[in-house]
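Need residues for this backbone.
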């Protein structure tokens, strides 16, 4: 019930696969973590530039960007799977995660082998961005309404 006593309108169900907005409807959780990471970049990159120079600033920007791209890839792949068939979520999520970890491992090993002086700054920024992303995501999840509906059990 609303403050006026009128019943609240029922939430519109997410569009089904193939319908316009099917994937977008499954990604409302991205706005707050993206804004939080943008805030981290706005603060962190200039501080790194002052303290560690342009290479430090580049390392911080690269670390934050890497975390953002990683979480976006995961979010979009799982949203796509859910829009196509919810039974695909686990397999798509696990394959996406494994592929990302292998790719990131290879890239990070190559960067470490190169001796790039911005690597320590990048590592600190990765840790900070993961913490900021997770905190923002948890904050969003704690305030988001729980999904409702009558799903038919498959067992």
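Answer:
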């Amino acid at each position: 019930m609303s403050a006026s006593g009128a019943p609240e309108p029922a939430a519109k169900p997410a569009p089904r696969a193939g319908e316009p907005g099917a994937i977008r409807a499954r990604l409302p959780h991205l706005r707050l973590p993206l804004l939080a990471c943008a805030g981290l970049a706005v603060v962190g990159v200039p501080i790194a530039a002052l303290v560690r120079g342009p290479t430090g600033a580049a390392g911080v920007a690269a670390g934050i960007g890497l975390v953002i791209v990683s979480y976006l890839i995961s979010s979009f792949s799982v949203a796509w799977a859910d829009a196509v068939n919810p039974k695909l979520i686990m397999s798509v999520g696990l394959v996406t995660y494994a592929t990302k970890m292998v790719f990131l491992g290879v890239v990070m090993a190559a960067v470490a082998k190169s001796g790039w002086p911005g690597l320590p700054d990048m590592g600190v920024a990765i840790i900070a961005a993961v913490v900021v992303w997770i905190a923002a995501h948890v904050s969003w999840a704690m305030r988001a309404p729980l999904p409702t509906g009558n799903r038919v059990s498959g067992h």
